[in-house]
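Q: I'm writing up a methods section and want to include an example of the input and output format. Could you take the sequence below and give the corresponding predicted structure tokens, formatted cleanly so I can copy it straight into the document?
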Amino acid sequence: MIAVIESTKDKEILSVNISEERKMFVVVAEQFISNVIKEYGKHPVSIDCGLELS
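A: Here is the clean output for your methods example:
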């Protein structure tokens, strides 16, 4: 679960709370992506709208 508290007056984010399960998912995903980059290097990635990410 992710909970975001936003100020109604100026739309500023006041607080973000992330559950432990979500934090673990993010950590595992970051480690996976890091390992893939170490193994294969960085390459351009094409997406449907034609933009290219690297």
